[in-house]
Structure formats: structure tokens, C-alpha cells
């Protein structure tokens, strides 16, 4: 959906959920601002029993002069746009409207109207709205108040940016020109005395795993930033390498994850814990997520428990029993993450190729960039991709490869010359997010696509590969600080001409990119 499609209507109401948070207020304000800039008769509202009371939200609305209204009834508008929520959900008052549109970043819970833009892979609805505004040619930095609101919405909904994974979220974080003094005031209006008590109680009651050096603690329901603060304090304990702090809510479980060792990415651990029952992600060291109670209950029921036992509503000590089941489940997931994971440090690893099959790349067009044509030699850059950020230093021999799905990986000149033939045709990119390079020192973003040229596998270099039946972490020879994760079904691969060039190939990419080498083909 494009925001310009909403301009067909004159009487428009923008609505966020009944207990607005900073992201809901910011994203709703962004849509409202766009509509008003086009002369529309627009209102920005929320329903429910309670008015906004949290000190940081009151300060945000007041200082940025956001015209959000609390309403109990509503005259039927031509168009109702729900933002940071979906029409008909339990957390948003259902008002009648001539037509309905939805802008959100949560998982789709029901049938969406024709006018909808739901980006569940983004960390905040503020990012969705920023992208919609950008597509209409509206730069949020032209309105410092709007830029500040969207920046703060993303900050709070991703737990101080610790749960960011998508490049568009990172772009909003890095590019917004915001009111720094106001953001400082908003950040320092978060913690109440009650929340201080919650943090203290959580830190007094924890479980510590001596073999895997992780800690798990439960906190009473609180703001997600409080969970992050508890996690940060817990990680400062000398024997704790990773930790999980969680809070049980009526509709799910909010989690905060931390790691201080390179062998565990917090973002990956959060994804593992929530897999199949919610969503999680973030940074290498800080991450978080949410588990849907309905899906968690199904897990318990699948283990032979009744729905009452699973949800803690069966009477007696059911609530306590339900909390214990959730605690036990999370401890089990933490243990399962560590059990059976193989770690390979490629630079020093002697790989056994006897059980591996030989493959070569299919002759499909790929992209390549000679890095020194983009930045001067010696420049420290961050390559932003769908798979995460890659930190490298530009050298004369560095080539940046762009795969069939937009995946990016480094190569050196010698290996490139042995492996690929250059093609004299323009490079065409069709992935979801075009790779971007950020100059670490100057903070300047440069797209790789204008510099990309086309190449094709020469067929001269082969690899050994095997399908994985367990999880493997590979610290490659070209990046000894960040590992590549391979799950069951993915492939562990090594170049035939360099047995220390070990890496992971995701299963959906492998068969599109590689094919078996016939006997005698390499002779």
C-alpha cells in the first residue's frame, strides 16, 4: 500500500491501540502529518478505558505537540487507519468506518483489508511509516519533531535498539536528525520506584547454569526497557556469559537476552528461544523477543497438559504452576540451544572431507564490486545486508560478492580470478534489500549496486560440501569474531583449493547455486 492511496478519502481518522506506547504514538503521528500536509480533515485517536499516563509518553506528546485524542465514541469516518495494530484485534477499540486501512509491523492475526501495509520483519511501526513517507518523497528530517518521534518510537520498541535486525530499522536509527536533548529527557523519564522494586526482585531470584554459564530470571510485568536494564546488570556478573530475563503477560511472554561471548549471538539465541511460538532478534550482544501465549499453551498441550494447566487458570496453585511451567520451558530451550552445537574455528581447523561431496557453482550471473572503487584503501566500512552487518577494512585485493538473494560475502582478488569470469553486461539486482556500505568514520551510506558488475562462475574451482544434521557455528578465516550459523538442512562447505576456507551455505541458496561435480570433471 502507498500512503497516496489514502488521499482518495477526505474524512480520515488515524487510530492506534488502546494503550499507546511510543511507537504507536510516533507512527500514528507520522501518518497524521502526511494527511494534514495534503489538506485532509484528519484526526489522531485512541480508545480504551485509560488515558496516557506514563511520564515519558506524556512528555513526548506534550513536547512534540502531538494532537492525539482519547475518545469513547466516534462519528463514522470515510476512512479509519489503524496504526501499530490491526482492525478488530483485542487491543484496539473497534469503531465503525466506511473503509479501513491497516499499517502495522506485528504478525498478521486475521484477514487484512485491501488497503494494508504490514511489515512483520521490521522492529517498529515507526520504520514502516518512515519507509511509506520516503516512498512518497517526504523526508522526515524536514520536520525535526517528526524525526524525533519516529526515532524514539523505534528506540523504545526495539529495547534501546538492541532488538534491531532489519536494515531499514538500522537506517532510521542512523539517519534520523532528532532532538537529542529531548531524547535524553525521555530516556530518563522511564523508571519509577515500582519498577526499581521489580528489577531488585528479579535479580534476587535467578537460576544459574554452571556448565553453560547462563542465568535466567523472571520479572513482574514491566516496560521492556526495564527487562533490558535487568539483563544488562545480570551480564556484569563475572561467571555469566549469557542471560535471559522474561516477564509473563496475559497475552504472552516478553524476553530480553544478552551475551558477552563471541560464541553466542544474542540475536540468534532470542530467535531460537521464540522459534515457532513468537519472534525474536536484535544485536550480537543485546536482543529480545515475544512469545505468544496461545502458541505457548499449544506447546504445553502437545506435552500432555490441559489448557488450564498450561495457562495457569485451573484454580488452586494453578497460577504458580503455570509460571513454573513457563520457567521450565525457557530453561529447557536455553539448554537445547547449547546442547550439540559444534563450533569450528576455520583458521586452525583440520576438516575431514572423506564424507563430503564435490560441487561446483552453476553458471548463473552474480554481482561483484571492487571495494577500492567505492572507498579509499584502509577505510573501515560496515556492509549492511539482510543477514546482518559485516565489518571489513578496504584493501586493494578486496572484492565484495553479491549472491542471488542479495547475500553479501567478501572475496580476495586471487580467488576471484580463479573462480569467476567477468561479463560485459550490466548487473541487475532483484533482491529485497540492496546491499549498503557505511563509512564507519564518516557515517556516510553508499549503495553497492551502482558499482556492481556482473560475473559468472568459471567452473574451475570446486568445493566439498555436506548437508548438516545438527547446528554448526563457523568462525571463518576472514572473520574470526563473528560466526556463520548452519542449521540442520544447511550445508557445510570448504573450497577444494583452500581447506581452511570453511563456511556455511543456507539450504535455500545451495541448490540454486551449486550442482554436483561429475567424476573426472576436475581432471
Question: Which SSEs are present, and which pair or pack?
Answer:
Layout: E1 11-15, H1 22-37, E2 41-46, H2 55-63, E3 68-70, E4 79-83, E5 99-104, E6 115-118, H3 125-135, H4 144-157, H5 167-175, H6 180-187, H7 193-204, E7 206-209, E8 214-219, H8 224-235, E9 242-249, E10 252-259, H9 266-274, E11 278-282, E12 286-292, H10 293-302, H11 307-311, H12 318-338, E13 342-345, E14 357-361, E15 366-370, E16 380-385, E17 388-393, E18 398-402, E19 408-412, H13 413-419, E20 420-426, E21 436-439, E22 445-447, E23 453-457, E24 462-467, E25 472-475, E26 483-486, E27 491-495, E28 498-505, H14 507-513, E29 514-516
Parallel strand pairs: 1-2, 1-4, 2-3, 4-5, 5-6, 8-9, 13-25
Antiparallel strand pairs: 7-8, 9-10, 10-12, 11-12, 14-24, 14-29, 15-18, 15-23, 16-17, 16-21, 18-19, 20-23, 21-22, 24-27, 25-26, 27-28
Helix pairs in contact: 1-3, 1-4, 2-6, 3-4, 7-8
